[in-house]
Amino acid sequence: MSAPPVRVTLYTKAECHLCEEMAAVVAAVAARVALQVTAVDIAGDPALLRRFQDEVPVLFVDGRKAFKYRVTAGALRRRIRRAQWERRILGTPRESPGGGS
Known about the structure:
Blueprint: E1 6-12, H1 17-30, E2 35-41, H2 46-52, E3 58-61, E4 64-68, H3 73-90
């Protein structure tokens, strides 16, 4: 029995070139690693807009803030491996803010 895929939640907004860059890195990694990817436009949620308006893009891995502004494929793969290890040791991952999973 295999473990469920690691959850990756990308908080983004329109007209954000860094958001597009981070989304491309996430897509490239997701093409090679089983991930549950969710993209959340913060403009649709006032609480998320207040929390992240000056930080987007923000990337959560299994409910934990992992990166903001930029990420490399290598750094994301390392964080995913860490999340997989934490799942084996600690159990179920946390929820991302706003319920994005």
